[in-house]
Amino acid sequence: MEYSLKLAHLYGDLLNTYGDIGNILTLQYYAKQMDVELAVKVVSLNTPFKADDYDMFFFGGGQDYEQMIVSKDIQDKKQGLTDFIEDGGPGLAICGGYQLLGKYYIGADGQKISGISALPHYTNSQDNNRFIGDITIKNEGSGDVYHGFENHNGVTYLGKGERPLGTVISGHGNNGEDDGEGAIYNNIFCSYFHGPILARNGELAKKMLLTALKRKYPDADFSKQEALEIKPT
């Protein structure tokens, strides 16, 4: 392989409830087509996250019990993750990972679970309700239409400096009120899409890989990688 990238899979041994590890498999699939070796390391409990050690990260979700454990441990990773995010490092956070990068979320039992405030959103809970079903959104910047499946009790409200990953065409989105789904902050992409999101929306995987490559190899010519055709799924 001509290029190499290293991805941190945050709490990959704990947060695999919805099969979103498929996002990593998708990144590896497209990376191979782009002449990139994508190495993956699980960064879990009692393991530091050093911003300079990684080119990308993936942060999935799980049940409240596991997320409470992660919530306590991730405070020790707060500075490293914040530094990485503010320096323009790319990452993908799904569901619980999305919530824990923010200020806090309220669990189904009403308990307030602390995030790391690396991103300015916060998440409340719904009473006896979940947003479940197919969802379609449109990214207003690129015009890309993303398809997925949402399943979440949380209702998330974005903060200063964040914009939605897309505008809801059908489905509920972040909170069922403001027509937004997910979040973009610097080069971090957040979403409630399961499925997993990248398997059905390869343009987003390509965008993440190109962002990481250009950040690591600023003088390289990636015209070949940019020309990679993503076939509809």
From TrEMBL:
Family matches, as Gene3D superfamilies: 3.40.50.880
Family: Belongs to the CobB/CobQ family. GatD subfamily.
Keyword Cell wall biogenesis/degradation among record annotations: yes
Organism for this UniProt entry: Ligilactobacillus acidipiscis
Role noted for this protein: The lipid II isoglutaminyl synthase complex catalyzes the formation of alpha-D-isoglutamine in the cell wall lipid II stem peptide. The GatD subunit catalyzes the hydrolysis of glutamine to glutamate and ammonia. The resulting ammonia molecule is channeled to the active site of MurT.
Matches recorded under PANTHER family: DETHIOBIOTIN SYNTHETASE, LIPID II ISOGLUTAMINYL SYNTHASE (GLUTAMINE-HYDROLYZING) SUBUNIT GATD
CDD domains on file: GATase1_CobQ
Protein name: Lipid II isoglutaminyl synthase (glutamine-hydrolyzing) subunit GatD
EC number: 6.3.5.13, 3.5.1.2
Subunit structure as annotated in this protein's UniProt entry: Forms a heterodimer with MurT.
Superkingdom as given in the UniProt entry: Bacteria
Gene encoding the protein: gatD
Record's keyword annotation contains Ligase: yes
InterPro entries with a match to the protein in the record: Class_I_gatase-like (IPR029062), CobQ_GATase1 (IPR033949), GATase_3 (IPR011698), Lipid_II_synth_GatD (IPR043702)
GO terms of biological process kind: cell wall organization; cobalamin biosynthetic process; peptidoglycan biosynthetic process; regulation of cell shape
UniProtKB keywords: Cell shape, Cell wall biogenesis/degradation, Glutamine amidotransferase, Hydrolase, Ligase, Peptidoglycan synthesis, Transferase
Reaction equation(s) it catalyzes: L-glutamine + H2O = L-glutamate + NH4(+); beta-D-GlcNAc-(1->4)-Mur2Ac(oyl-L-Ala-gamma-D-Glu-L-Lys-D-Ala-D-Ala)-di-trans,octa-cis-undecaprenyl diphosphate + L-glutamine + ATP + H2O = beta-D-GlcNAc-(1->4)-Mur2Ac(oyl-L-Ala-D-isoglutaminyl-L-Lys-D-Ala-D-Ala)-di-trans,octa-cis-undecaprenyl diphosphate + L-glutamate + ADP + phosphate + H(+)
GO molecular function, one term: transferase activity
Segments forming domain CobB/CobQ-like glutamine amidotransferase: 7-201
